[in-house]
Amino acid sequence: MPASTQPRPIHRFGDFEFEPRTGELRKRGHKVRLREQPAQILTLLLARPGDLVTREEARQALWPGDTFVDFDVGLNSAVKGTLAVVLLALALSRTGDRLRGARTNPVHVTSIAVLPFENLTGDAGQDYFVDGMTDAVITRLAQVRALRVISRTSVMQYKRTNKLLPRIAGELNVDAVVEGTVARSGDRVRVTAQLIHASTDHHLWARTYERELREVLALQGQLAGAIAEAVQVKVQPEEGRRLAGRGAVDPDAYDAYLKGRLFSERRSSRDLSKAIACFQQAIARDPTYAPAYSGLSDVYRMFGVQGLPPRECMPKAEAAARKALSLDDTLAEAHASLAGVLYRYQWDWQGGEREFRISLELDPGSAEGHRAYAVYLWTVRRNEEALSEMEHARELSPLSATINVELGAALVRVGRFGDAIQQVQKALEIDPKVGGAHTVLARAYEGQGDGRRALAALESGSDSGRANAWLAYGMEPPGAGARRSRYWRGSRSSPADSTSHRSTLPSSTWASVTGIERSSGSKERTRTEPSRLPASRARFSICWATTRGSRTCCAG
Questions:
Q1: Pair 480, 471: CB distance under 8 Å
Q2: Looking at the predicted structure, is the pLDDT value of residue 465 above 80?
Q3: 100/202 Cα distance (integer angstroms)
Q4: What is the CATH number of the domain that holds 226?
Q5: Under 8 Å between Cβ of 215 and 190
Q6: What is the mean pLDDT of the chain?
Q7: Which of 16, 61, 307, 442 could link 454 by a cystine bridge, Cβ 3.0 to 4.6 Å?
């Protein structure tokens, strides 16, 4: 076919489609025909993705060599005719100096990672606010069932990283990433975000939003909705309504809430006390702000696990969760908070599962939601279902060392000891100090009948109190028998480390030794005995898959 008659390709960028042959620029069924010279300018740019176009090249494309024209005037006129298109193209460009990413096929995106937004305020003390913005966008997007969104725990590991985006996307196994910046000044906040196709590094979308602080929730919803629209996933009507978010919020209440979440993530007793104060401050500023009550519920439950008598903190946790739901029954985190109280403290297994299911229906992309539901499932001996939920949690948070350890524990419970060992080793690569890893390794080795390696795993772990508890529980590898009583005494005397889960397993040991078995014991006894363990774990003591010669896996 002669070159002059070859069809020109159709160029696609962002939501736009441009056909050089006709000069038509289309966007979702709407089209406009560009004049000849603006169309030539756009064709030239799209034909040279990644390159700068010189003035001489533009002149040669627009006017033959024997054509006389005032070049500057003519070029300016041509450019002005397509200025809006060029600006849109520049918005899709990382450098802002050239158009990149012209494609002939639409991009398929079903998974995404929102990387930590950059703090442009110039004040490191505002990091909590910027991180809160990242978290909010992740949470909103995770409500879209058709989109897999990586959890905050995993993406925060890339804060201030120098890694290239394709490498990050490969490590997280996603199709696209979102980068952004946040600037807060006075009572206003500005967010700029861009969506990038991971494998090609092409920009798909970019936008800037600026609002008053009291409208920050609407800003987050608008941003998340625009990202979902840009990746062209199917958003159900109810999901769209939740994406849009809630109304105005008192800026001081929102600020106190974010600080409360920051302190609660640190998990030490001192920080949890600070978190309670922050959540209470948020509630005092805005008694209708449901997330503050949900955060308060979570902290009270954490205190129950870490050592406070459950009868002191669990009723407060339940009251806060129910208050949150009375204000907003679509708040997934509040349903999850209530679920934890119902099954751990009330032993209301059906009520707990009901709340977990509602939570995951509202927020299907919550890694923490799937993790917590998995723990519930293995508590009630539904180990295969628990494994499935924990695998889903790991998909959403692949770089969470804790979830990787708990996936190893779930594998132990179904007798897949070799897989469990490999899984825990991955967790230790992520974080060599992650709590519980050596305990799960020991369980897996014991399941394989390798008592010596099980004992070595326990003794090499950093969580000595937990290791002592397991040895006391009844594990008898070679050389361990003479040390059993000493380990029992050690597990009872080892101080609970409030930054890990070390304080829970000695209570499991206490539960088994004192006779609280799966089918015995009363609620009242569990609440009044000096156990640091939630009621569900006291009732379903965590045990070795091969304890005392049995090769069947135990619940818990």
A1: yes
A2: no
A3: 7
A4: 3.40.50.10070
A5: no
A6: 76
A7: 442
Give all strands (DSSP E) within 266-402, no chain letters: none
pLDDT tens for 383-438 read: 999 999 999 999 999 999 999 999 999 999 999 999 999 999 999 999 998 988 99
Are residues 355 and 314 in contact, defined by beta-carbon separation less than 8 angstroms?
no
Q: What is the CB neighbour count within 10 angstroms for residue 51?
A: 13
By residue range, what is the domain housing residue 41? 3-91
The residue-averaged pLDDT of 161-177 equals 90
d(CA 167, CA 174): 10
Alpha carbon of residue 314 to chain centroid? 26
Mean pLDDT, residues 210-224 taken together? 91
Residue 456 included in any domain: no
Which is nearest to 365 in space by CA: 143, 111, 138? Answer: 143
- Between strands 188-197 and 118-119, the pairing is unpaired
What is the percent of the chain with per-residue pLDDT over 90, rounded to a whole number?
46
Other residues' Cβ atoms within 10 Å of the Cβ of residue 7:
9
pLDDT at 171 over 90: yes
Over residues 300-324, the pLDDT tens digits come to 999 887 778 888 899 999 999 999 9
The SS3 assignment for 511 reads helix
Rounded-to-integer distance, Cα 297 and Cα 279, Å: 10
> How many separate helices (H) and strands (E) can be counted in the chain?
26, 10
Q: From residue 99, how far is each of 21, 43, 201, 420 by CA, in Å?
A: 20, 11, 13, 48
How do residues 358-379 score in pLDDT, each as one tens digit?
Answer: 999 999 999 999 999 999 999 9
What's the pTM? 0.70
By CB neighbour count within 10 A (0-12 exposed, 13-18 middle, 19+ buried), where does 126 fall? middle
Residue 481 lies in a domain: no
Give burial (CB, 10 Å; 0-12/13-18/19+) of 87. exposed
CA distance 326 to 12: 47
In a domain, 216, yes or no: yes
